[in-house]
Write a structure and sequence with these properties.
This protein has about 350 residues and is of the alpha/beta class. The chain is about 45% helix and about 15% strand. The strands form three sheets. The chain has a seven-stranded parallel sheet with strand order 1-4-5-8-9-10-11. GO terms for molecular function: uroporphyrinogen decarboxylase activity.
Length: about 350
């Protein structure tokens, strides 16, 4: 494989010295970019974009071509590929988000679920990873990803997005045996899926626990974190002669940082509700931190964006172990020029913290 020309993202995740704080954005290939919208129109729909390796590669590369400051690429895919491969029938309705043709509601439903083979059932994702990695040609590292078992389970039980997760939480409390079986199958599936991505060329992986923060403290430990811990313990941690860092991100998980930091990942993603300096004090030297600017700051003028970037960098302070990111994904209405101002500010303002 081609040697990396820019590896500061990987070095920061492993708490190794860097010249400036590396930066990337969750959902950096997305609807805020006119070139993405054009590609999606050419593909026909979102799933056609995801399931065609050439299209997935094209949109993954678009933000890198526009913003030379980006220090990583992230695979363009969807977190719900695993439930789809389990036979749930993923589709998207305009204005409604993801939906499933089948829902999981009984122990029998869960027992019947297969564990997907990443190469046979999700081969289009593996092909996308290898295609993107080849196209990157060592420019920056490639991040692979998956949803967490708990997050995937909520969509499978609810049949789509939910505001209150009433069906999922009812199963959790009424039938914990069924919920644990579902989460265990999903943990096995995520482990093999991420390992498949690593073997196909992903150089770091992130677990997105989008809905873990909606659980109680006790339920989070038992039904979300325990299964992410299981995944991390089963991941390939070295490939192509270097370590493969793992990032764990629970949106709304600020109350449980110490527990998440002990779960075996190399880095912990923060949403924007945490102060990153306080988070650094709480987790000590155990993990790197990724985050954590409020994505809506990008609606503001470039001067205000730059001020907020400076505040977050100052809060983290000197030294490595910080990957700058948003506290969640960039939103579709953001002006691409504002995203560029954000990325430039991170590199320009962070050098002083790495002297």
């Amino acid at each position: 494989m081609t040697a990396l020309k820019n590896d500061r993202f990987l070095r920061a995740l492993l708490k190794q010295p860097v010249d400036v704080t590396p930066v990337w954005m969750m959902r950096q290939a997305g609807r805020y970019l006119p070139e993405y919208r054009a590609s999606r129109a050419n593909a026909g729909d979102f799933m056609s974009l995801c399931m065609n390796p050439e299209f997935a590669c094209e949109v993954t590369m678009q933000p890198l071509d526009r913003y030379p400051q980006l220090d990583a690429a992230i695979l363009f895919s969807d977190i719900l590929t695993i439930p789809d491969a389990m036979g749930q029938g993923l589709y998207f309705e305009t204005g409604e988000g993801p939906r499933f043709k089948k829902v999981v509601s009984t122990l029998a439903d869960i027992e019947a679920l297969p564990i997907p083979d990443p190469h046979k059932d999700l081969g289009y994702v593996m092909d996308a990873v290898s295609t993107i990695r080849r196209e990157l040609n060592g420019r920056v590292p490639l991040i692979g990803f998956s949803g967490s078992p708990w997050t995937l389970a909520t969509y499978m039980v609810e049949g789509g997005s939910s505001k209150d997760f009433r069906k999922t939480k009812a199963m959790l409390y009424d039938n914990p045996q069924a919920m644990h079986l579902l989460l265990d199958k999903l943990a096995q599936s995520v482990t093999s899926y991420l390992n498949g991505q690593i073997m196909a060329g992903a150089q770091a992986v992130q677990i997105f626990d989008t809905w873990g923060g909606n659980l109680s403290a006790a339920a989070y430990q038992e039904f979300s974190l325990a299964y992410m811990r299981k995944i991390v313990s089963g991941l390939i941690r070295e490939h192509e002669g270097r370590k493969v860092p793992v990032i764990m991100f629970t949106k709304g998980g600020g109350l449980w940082l110490e527990s998440i930091a002990d779960a075996g990942a190399d880095a912990l993603g923060l949403d924007w509700t945490c102060d990153i300096g306080e988070a650094r004090q709480r987790v000590g030297n155990r993990v790197a931190l990724q985050g954590n600017m409020d994505p809506t700051v990008l609606y503001a003028k470039p001067e205000a964006i730059r001020t907020e970037v400076g505040r977050i960098l100052a809060s983290y302070g000197k030294g490595t172990g910080h990957v700058f990111n948003l506290g969640h994904g960039i939103t579709p209405e953001v002006n691409p020029e504002h995203a560029g101002a954000f990325l430039r500010a991170v590199h320009e303002l962070s050098a002083q913290y790495h002297e």
